[in-house]
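Backbone-to-sequence.
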């Protein structure tokens, strides 16, 4: 084993990197030798980088983070991969997939991402990292302890292949609470609500003011496999996919088979809609349509591989509508310039996401009950999807006694993982 060349001078402990490998965004931080938190700027001036890779077959290079997203959206030839975390624990992880001229396992692609992540962290810190605390959701996979354990092992193996030699794990919501604990001045019972791209995770913790994070007590944790990428899928199915024939009643009064629309709306499955077999199947669907314009749009989306672009348009409209509360247009001009403007508005979003948000809030309430409490002092919101207005309103109604604190949405978990790194 390689021993660390960098250590925390005051305690002689190695410097430990905290990595929040998120479904949508990745962030990293560490506590330096003087005991100060250092947040790595992973993507230009930004702390977080999109968890995305682009295999650019025009220029024969692999791009990461926002560069990957930009190249894909600019129409560069190649293959985009997002939401890799959603594949952890699934059989797909060991399957080979075509990325340009070569074929790689999804696992190898995660390793490539971790290597680049490590390289960026070390370049900025000016020293190598061998020790890492990896964040993990409360459940990678719902309802299967075995696949959940496999998901964590796979994540650890990817970090190891990328060069980390000492690997620990911490639950993402506990990390967020440890970060919040740095800022309190009175003892507080907090419910952390971490709603990211793939999962919603909760913890109830008793945090003690003016002491180290070692004195924080976990009272309960819960989690459910619902996040922003599910909201994107639901909104895509509700607003965009009907223009391609989703729920279209075709010839003979039958509804067009829907699996292609689900693949196109699910970040980590989009590529499945482009295989030769899937394309052939989609082409044959024309007999099921009574309106051939819809089928033509479906084929354009598949042949031009617009899946990620359409979903990114939906995601952008979701975020814009969530911030402003105003209707927001989904840009689909590239698909069909004659298409009337499609908008995501607050009532439509409320309707499409209602059932999922109820499940999320229920899971939050279960966490409080599991902690043996009726209420908490503070509800601390983190994760990108915690900005959703309708969610905030529902939480306020469900927990009227608690003070709602909107935290560092994208960096809190990584900071907490860094604090975990200096805990025994
Ligand atoms: N203002 C906003 N309103 C609603 N959703 C938003 C907003 N900003 C970002 N999001 C959504 O937040 C999600 C990303 O959040 P975050 O970066 O916390 O996730 P993650 O940590 O990568 O995922 P996970 O923790 O589930 O693995 C995306 O689905 C994005 O669309
Ligand atoms: Mg997260």
């Amino acid at each position: 084993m390689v021993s660390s060349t960098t250590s925390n001078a005051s305690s002689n402990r190695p410097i430990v990197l905290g990595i929040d490998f998120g479904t949508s965004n990745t962030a990293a931080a560490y506590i330096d030798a003087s005991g100060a938190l250092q947040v790595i700027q992973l993507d230009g001036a930004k702390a977080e980088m999109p968890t995305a890779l682009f295999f650019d077959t025009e220029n024969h290079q692999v791009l990461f983070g926002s560069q990957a997203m930009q190249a894909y959206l600019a129409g560069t030839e190649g293959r985009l991969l997002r939401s890799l975390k959603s594949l952890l624990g699934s059989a797909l992880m060991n399957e080979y997939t075509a990325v340009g001229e070569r074929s790689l396992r999804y696992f190898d692609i995660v390793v490539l991402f971790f290597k680049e992540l490590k390289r960026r962290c070390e370049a900025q810190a000016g020293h190598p990292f061998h020790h890492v605390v990896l964040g993990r959701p409360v459940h990678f996979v719902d309802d299967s302890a075995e696949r959940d354990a496999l998901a964590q092992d796979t994540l650890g193996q990817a970090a190891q292949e990328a060069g980390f030699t000492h690997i620990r794990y911490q639950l993402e919501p506990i990390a967020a609470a440890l970060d919040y604990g740095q800022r309190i001045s009175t003892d507080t019972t907090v419910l952390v609500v971490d709603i990211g791209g793939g999962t919603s995770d909760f913890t109830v913790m008793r945090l003690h003011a003016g002491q180290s994070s070692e004195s924080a007590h976990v009272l309960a944790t819960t989690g459910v496999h619902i996040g922003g990428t599910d909201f994107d899928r639901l909104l895509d199915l509700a607003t965009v996919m009907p223009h391609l024939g989703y729920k279209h009643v075709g010839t003979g009064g039958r509804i067009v088979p829907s699996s292609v629309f689900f693949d196109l709306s699910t970040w980590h499955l989009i590529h499945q809609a482009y295989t030769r077999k899937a394309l052939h199947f989609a082409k044959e669907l024309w007999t099921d349509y009574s309106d051939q314009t819809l089928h033509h749009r479906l084929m354009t989306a598949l042949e031009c591989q617009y899946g990620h672009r359409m979903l990114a348009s939906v995601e952008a409209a979701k975020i814009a509508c969530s911030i402003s509360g105003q209707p927001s247009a989904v840009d689909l001009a590239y698909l069909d310039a004659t298409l009337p403007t499609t908008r995501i508005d607050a009532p439509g979003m409320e309707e499409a996401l209602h059932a999922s948000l109820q499940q999320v809030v229920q899971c939050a309430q279960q966490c409080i009950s599991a902690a043996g409490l009726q209420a908490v002092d503070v509800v601390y919101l983190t994760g990108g999807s915690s900005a959703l207005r309708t969610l905030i309103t529902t939480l306020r109604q469900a927990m009227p006694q608690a003070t709602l604190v909107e935290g560092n949405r994208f960096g809190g978990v990584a900071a907490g993982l860094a604090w975990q790194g200096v805990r025994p």
